[in-house]
Amino acid sequence: xxxxxxxxxxxxxxxxxxxxxxxxxxxxxxxxxxxxxxxxxxxxxxxxxxxxxxxxxxxxxxxxxxxxxxxxxxxxxxxxxxxxxxxxxxxxxxxxxxxxxxxxxxxxxx
Length: 110
Hints:
By secondary structure, the chain is α+β, with helices and mostly antiparallel strands. The protein has one domain (6-83): Fe-S cluster assembly (FSCA) (GMP Synthetase, Chain A, domain 3). Helices cover 31% and strands 17% of the residues. It is built from 3 helices and 3 strands, in the order αββαβα. It has a 3-stranded mixed sheet, with helices on one face. Strand 1 and strand 2 (49-54) form a beta hairpin. The longest helix is centred in the first third of the chain and has 15 residues, at 6-20. The model has no long low-confidence stretch (mean pLDDT 92).
């Protein structure tokens, strides 16, 4: 089993975060990264597994399955990712303060 050096690990985490920008929240039309839904990303090299800790805008979001499928499909497109460990949390709860400036402007929130 080969261990990643720090540069390789950061590169893979950056690829994961970048790829998550292609996952669009179907209701809001903004990607989950700019919405501030993604709390943490990681990569477990021996397993070739991407890890994502994220939240949703509301508990009981009816689109949880759609978003989860989109996350899995997007991350499996990265060379070196065979598995995706997606963890959904509501602690801390999401607020509009999590959104990027881009998302605020796109949604007309001052």
